[in-house]
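[step 3/7] inverse_fold.run input=structure_tokens len=329
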């Protein structure tokens, strides 16, 4: 994998393009915004999503996906989960059979309730598929701060190849054979981060946040296992690791959204002016519906979905969670 196409010009796409370049690959990056393409090629910076971070001059940005894919040995799909279907549909005619794909979005498609690997398997049945997830803020990755992530695939040699293509001393991928578990962890943790932000915004204390994180892991495991994932996956980087980061750090977009809601903002007010997609908003609806379909109990996820999508008052949500029957762990 010496030539890598990165599909998506947001913060995470730009950061992963930088990771690939640091690992020695030639990188073509596709972005929709002509201004971002020009800035990356001329100033070696993404001023919209990663301002102040110098990008490798070897990263070549383009508005034409066929140019980014030309000669590529692999493609990193770094677009929001709810846009993945449209992007894959556009890329399908350009994608060689057997092209390795690394899916880097964290979410569940709201319309079909498919994870990204399930979606790519449907649309690109002849491509080899892996997923990347884990505790990784794009800005820290771009600044070359130490980061560990998970690369998961049911095709172990493919996961190993992506590890070798992207791994450096400061970007450390770990292999997993459980892409579904990794994806469920990556999607649900954003929903739980909103819940933890609401706790912070309401001033309910660190004890309550720790309880939400702990019970949230149980929700992840129940949903993941119901979809065929391995329970131990959720104790790793893509489960507990990503959950702790997203539920405690001020730079977490989903956590700060929850904080704004907890302090009394409406969802529209809290989202106003944000350019980056907050995956937790869509994931709350998708995860709650998926849990209902699989008959899995996920009270925290259901409560967040009620606040975001059904107009449930936050005080009502909190009282509903606190008045649940006592049970064993």
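[step 3/7] decode complete -> sequence:
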């Amino acid at each position: 994998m010496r030539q890598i196409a990165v599909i998506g010009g947001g913060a995470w796409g730009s950061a992963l393009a930088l990771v690939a370049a640091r690992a020695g690959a030639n990188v073509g990056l596709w972005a929709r915004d002509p201004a971002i393409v020009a800035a990356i090629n001329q100033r070696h910076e993404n001023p919209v999503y990663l301002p102040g971070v110098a990008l490798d001059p070897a990263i070549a940005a383009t508005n034409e996906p066929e140019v980014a894919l030309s000669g590529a040995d692999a493609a990193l799909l770094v677009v929001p989960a709810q846009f993945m279907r449209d992007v894959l549909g556009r890329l399908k005619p350009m994608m060689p059979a057997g092209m390795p794909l690394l899916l880097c979005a964290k979410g569940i498609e709201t319309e079909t309730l498919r994870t990204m690997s399930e979606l790519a398997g449907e649309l690109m049945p002849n491509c080899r598929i892996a997923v990347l997830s884990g505790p990784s803020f794009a800005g820290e990755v771009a600044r070359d701060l130490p980061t560990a992530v998970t690369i998961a695939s049911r095709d172990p040699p493919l996961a190993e190849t992506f590890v070798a293509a992207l791994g450096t001393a400061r970007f450390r991928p770990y292999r997993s054979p459980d892409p579904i578990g990794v994806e469920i962890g990556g999607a649900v943790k954003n929903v739980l981060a909103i819940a933890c932000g609401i706790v912070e915004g309401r001033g309910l204390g660190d004890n309550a946040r720790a309880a939400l994180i702990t019970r949230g892991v149980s929700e992840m495991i129940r949903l993941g296992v119901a979809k065929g994932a391995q329970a131990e996956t959720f104790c790793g980087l893509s489960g507990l690791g990503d959950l702790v980061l997203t539920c405690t750090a001020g730079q977490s977009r989903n956590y700060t959204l929850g904080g704004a809601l907890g302090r009394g903002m409406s969802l529209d007010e809290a989202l106003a002016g944000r350019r980056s997609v907050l995956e937790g908003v869509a994931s709350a609806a998708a995860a709650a519906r998926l849990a209902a379909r699989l008959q899995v109990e996920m009270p925290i996820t259901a409560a967040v979905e009620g606040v975001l999508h059904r107009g449930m008052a936050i005080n009502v949500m909190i009282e509903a969670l606190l008045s649940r029957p006592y049970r064993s762990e």
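[step 4/7] annotate
The chain has 15 helices and eight strands.
The longest helix spans residues 179-202.
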